[in-house]
Amino acid sequence: MKDPLVRFSVAIGGELLRRFDRYRKEHRYPNRSEAVRGLMTAALVEDVIGQDQSEAMGVVTLVYDHHAGRIAEKLTELQHRHVERVVTTTHVHLDERRCLEVILLRGAASVVRQLADDLIGIKGVETGRLVLTAARPVAGTHEDHAGHDHGHPHGHGHEHGHGHDHDHGNGADPDHPPEQSRPAPARGRRLKKRPGRSSRRSNQASD
């Protein structure tokens, strides 16, 4: 069963609020509630992947010169030694010498970080980067964002499966004014019943 939404107030103003509103618009959050929810989720994900034993997904991006001493072979050998951690690999030829390789890893956060460091540290790798995220949803993210279509990381060209949360009081969200009640639709006219055949026949008989 989905947990009910809880509304709470945040007192904020000045430059911090102005920068927050700019951030919300730049990242296409539809309102302040969604922006706060996105930032909370990002903070919880960072907390989860900071724990060594938490289950994590890692994307390792490597750019290297494939002519450098057996680098392609070394990368392949290392991945084969950790075949249970390597989900998939994509290889792209950038030019006549340089290659781009993207490797998706899964496992305990500490294991994923160590394997990524080993891959990036192989001689001949020009640049390497690891992007780490939680493999399981943090509290509330799966339910609260069900039905949302995210236009960028953590959201936010949204198609909503539920109603908007509105901020109340001073500093209300200008993009989402309170909804006004709509007048009830007018009732249609009642049609008068026309006399049936039996009524017409009885009138003719009386004439």
The whole-angstrom Rg is 31 Å
Helix and strand pattern = HHEHEEHEHH
What portion of the residues fall into strands of 2 or more residues?
Answer: 15-25%
Instruction: Give me the number of helical elements.
Output: 6
- What is the total tally of β strands? 4
> Which sheet architecture does the biggest sheet show?
4 strands, antiparallel
Quickly give the structural class. Answer: alpha+beta
> Helix content range of the residues, please?
25-40%
Q: Which blocks of ≥5 consecutive residues have pLDDT under 50?
A: 141-193, 195-207
Shape: elongated
Biggest sheet strand order reads: 2-3-1-4
Spatial gap, N to C terminus? 73 Å
Give the overall average pLDDT: 76
Quick structural summary:
By secondary structure, this protein is α+β, with helices and mostly antiparallel strands. The chain contains 6 helices and 4 strands.
